[in-house]
Amino acid sequence: MNTYTNEIKNINRTLEQQGASWSAINAESVARMRLQNRFATGLDIARYTAKIMREDMAAYDRDPANYTQSLGCWHGFVGQQKMISIKKHFGETKGRYLYLSGWMVAAMRSEFGPLPDQSMHEKTAVPDLIAELYTFLKQADARELHHLFKELDKARAGRDHVRERYVQKAVDGFQTHVVPIIADIDAGFGNEEATYLLAKKMIEAGACCIQIENQVSDAKQCGHQDGKVTVPHEDFLAKIHAVRYAFMELGVEDGVIVARTDSLGAGLTQKIPVSTSAGDLAQQYNAYIDGEAISDLREIAPGDLVLAQGDGCIKVKRLANGLVKFKPNTGEDRVVLDCITSLQHGADLLWIETEKPHIGQIAGMVNRIRAQVPNAKLVYNNSPSFNWTLNFRQQVFDAWQQEGRDLTEYHRENLMSVEYDTTPLAQEADERIRTFQRDAAQQAGIFHHLITLPTYHTAALSTDNLAKSYFGDQGMLAYVETVQRQEIRQSLACVKHQDMSGSNIGDDHKEYFSGGQALKAAGEANTMNQFS
């Protein structure tokens, strides 16, 4: 017996037990409403999506070709349209997630207005956006199933039993738009208790995966800004533990933690941890502290900080604000230690924030980590902060230079110029960009590729293009030619915006509740019918 029919039978039994007072309730209508809302709570979503993500991680371990992807979304509608598009073009959502970017929450969702990515926005905006994204994804389910139910009714009315069975099979095999969200908790918005409390809110909203970084919470910077300050391992591990406790308390045992290290670009630490035994984490961390070797107490001035390091002592180098400097050129070593330590203390995935998209650089660090933790794998930021065109053209230039090829027609510092767009070097660079995710998954241990804030840029670009033409001499043609005509020809469901916003679902409900007295919006006078 199929799912749809079983659901109707079970509901009918319940209605029969209630007697005549519930006789106006139609079992099939209830079944449709239930199927259109398969997740009663955010915790149901978190448990469902955590299982998906764990299965995807295991599939990647078997074969790196099974890497996953996501795009950052700053509004529920954006996330919804992304997943509708994926289902339309690829038939399924497997391996495609959503990313919730702290950068975009700060820039787009704060009541203070646009803010930099420095943890100044309201932390409640993060779980609020998670809940909003899943509300829109669930509405996408409801809308698609609504159309299937209408097809089912039409097949029954026409006594087309073959079509009826086909549609009912589609209902039973329906794939939800609800997918995992990797959610950015920044540096935890406070101490470990604050991190735990916020993590709970995020999980209750539906997050199965939380990404946390090892910067100082009250001095947090965007990963692509200067002035980053990291915390000792003990502080960061306490926050990883806090997130795990939140997952466990709420019954999401498969919850995923992404430990992000900003050490590659961070030259400062806020404090020097206390070592209690030789070779412990504190001592390993302190080995990277920069300072001037001293051999005489008379070299110490008031306010100086002295640290035993190796077989001697150093006078620690500090900024005027008291922040402590790391030794130059120790970033990669600190990254490797950060990552190994995080995985050995409860993290599931790693995030290494880099200054450029270079597979060799990433692989070099990952191979060192895998020497200690063989199944280590990354979530990697394919960041819009990188100049991808220039970076890859320069990578090709450098590779060709090593091969001894003639590069006299190219100027390395000017490779962004349009004059190079049709050259063999530019074409090779574009091909490397095209295959970057596949190649990095294979060679550098990247399980998940994401772009943090792509829809921030697409919104700006599309708005600029429309405004330029609409307020210029193109007028209404600018909208018709570049937006509506393309929506129609590319079969974007959103061209029927009334349907997308839930108008037809509302009509169904009115009919369930009021029967023939229902005042519905989808009649002949609805101009949406022009897009049939």
UniProtKB/TrEMBL annotation:
Alphabetized InterPro entries for the sequence: ICL/PEPM (IPR039556), Isocitrate_lyase (IPR006254), Pyrv/PenolPyrv_kinase-like_dom (IPR015813), Pyrv_kinase-like_dom_sf (IPR040442)
Active site: 222 (proton acceptor)
UniProt name for this protein: Isocitrate lyase
Keywords annotated in UniProt: Lyase, Magnesium, Metal-binding
Organism: Teredinibacter turnerae (strain ATCC 39867 / T7901)
Stored SUPFAM superfamilies: Phosphoenolpyruvate/pyruvate domain
PANTHER family attached to this UniProt entry: BIFUNCTIONAL GLYOXYLATE CYCLE PROTEIN, ISOCITRATE LYASE/MALATE SYNTHASE
Cofactor dependency: Mg(2+)
Reaction equations catalysed: D-threo-isocitrate = glyoxylate + succinate
Cofactor binding notes: Can also use Mn(2+) ion.
GO biological process: carboxylic acid metabolic process
Record: residues binding Mg(2+): 184
Cross-referenced CDD domains: ICL_PEPM
GO MF term list: isocitrate lyase activity; metal ion binding
